[in-house]
């Protein structure tokens, strides 16, 4: 039975089987009123956080005081997710990318718009020494790393497997899979040393679950399947240190990666095979990234979230 204040109590008609303990009643400022239709209204309970004005549930999405590192954050999905982390309170952000101009613009924008400390590091995620140095520099200049978001990645498509040049294959695996591991390892070493845990978010792809049609892209698909299983393996190993690892698997998103002439004709096919009949907008992973980075997902590790407009349903 639901009482006026919204407290669930045992139903007396159910007899002795009901548990004796009654849940604690929420704090109510003054008695609520019940109108003639039985609708409860009245003062707002005293549950809002004094500083932010948010309810406890929404408060868990805040990232105040955290330090985030975003690879591939100079543009595209990575930049948009970096913006969302800043909007939700991180105190500092480091962008790792190979695009100097985009990187410079990205940190200037993040600093001016959100007031965060922001640094750009022009490094290749395949360079393990450079990545180690960057994490050390972030710790020294921005603070200990709480969040790592691995968005750096490349795609090759429309290359038949029987003709795939091996050096091209190796390069893609090196960036998408090995590069993700190099960054995760460096961040995890820092998190373990600091002893405060953290959240590592990988950007995988629906291509790690299904085989795209009609383009041939065996290497990309394999790299992203590898990222998902790497994420699960690291989640299992690093849970003991309070490090959570999860991934996001986007469907077709409207970013520079897909704005190439060779793919234009295929976009019609992609949309027709997507229940929502469109590509994702560049900011449509933002809320998921904040969720995974924050305490809102505190009991979640080793999970992959597919965000694809329904593509994988068919
Ligand atoms: N766009 C999509 O449809 C889509 C779908 C599924 C998954 N993804 C994945 O999302 C991630 C971001 O893609 P995007 O669409 O924003 O692409 P993007 O090309 O706009 O962004 C990728 C960023 O990674 C950087 N990068 C590439 N290689 C790097 C390296 N070796 N070292 C450091 N930085 C490097 C690029 O410079 C770029 O800024 C990628 O991992 C991609 O595979 C994209």
From TrEMBL:
Q: What biological processes does GO assign it?
A: mannitol metabolic process
Q: Which superkingdom, per the lineage? A: Eukaryota
Q: Which UniProt keywords apply?
A: NADP, Oxidoreductase
Pfam families per the record?
Answer: adh_short_C2
Q: Name one GO molecular function term.
A: oxidoreductase activity, acting on NAD(P)H, oxygen as acceptor
The UniProt entry, under InterPro entries, shows: NAD(P)-bd_dom_sf, Sc_DH/Rdtase_CS, SDR_fam
Which family is it part of? Answer: Belongs to the short-chain dehydrogenases/reductases (SDR) family.
Q: What is this protein called?
A: Uncharacterized protein
Taxonomic lineage: Eukaryota, Fungi, Dikarya, Ascomycota, Pezizomycotina
């Amino acid at each position: 039975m639901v009482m006026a204040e919204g407290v669930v109590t045992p139903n007396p008609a159910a007899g002795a089987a009901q548990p004796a303990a009654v849940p604690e009643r929420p704090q109510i400022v003054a008695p609520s009123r019940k109108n003639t239709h039985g609708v409860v209204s009245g003062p707002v309970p005293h549950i809002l956080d004094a500083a932010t004005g948010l309810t406890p549930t929404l408060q868990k999405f805040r990232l105040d005081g955290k330090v985030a590192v975003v690879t591939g954050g100079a543009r595209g999905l990575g930049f948009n997710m970096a913006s969302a982390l800043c909007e939700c309170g991180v105190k500092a952000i480091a962008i790792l990318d190979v695009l100097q101009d985009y990187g410079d613009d990205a940190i200037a924008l993040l600093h001016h718009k959100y007031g965060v400390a922001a640094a750009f590091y022009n490094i290749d995620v395949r360079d393990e020494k450079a990545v180690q140095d960057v994490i050390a520099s972030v710790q020294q200049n921005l603070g200990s790393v709480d969040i790592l978001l691995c968005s750096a990645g490349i795609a090759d498509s429309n290359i038949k497997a029987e003709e795939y040049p091996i050096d091209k294959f190796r390069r893609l695996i090196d960036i998408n899979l090995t590069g993700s591991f190099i960054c995760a390892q460096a961040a995890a070493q820092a998190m373990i040393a600091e002893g405060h845990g953290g959240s590592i978010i990988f950007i995988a792809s629906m291509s790690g679950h299904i085989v795209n049609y009609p383009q041939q892209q065996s290497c990309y698909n394999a790299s992203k399947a590898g990222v998902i299983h790497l994420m699960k393996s690291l989640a299992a190993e690093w849970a003991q240190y309070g490090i959570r690892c999860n991934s996001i698997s986007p469907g077709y998103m409207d970013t520079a990666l897909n704005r190439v002439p060779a793919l234009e004709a295929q976009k019609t096919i992609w949309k027709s095979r997507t229940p929502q009949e469109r590509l994702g907008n560049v900011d449509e992973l933002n809320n998921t990234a904040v969720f995974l980075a924050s305490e809102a997902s505190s009991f979640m590790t080793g999970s992959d979230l597919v965000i694809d407009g329904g593509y994988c349903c068919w």
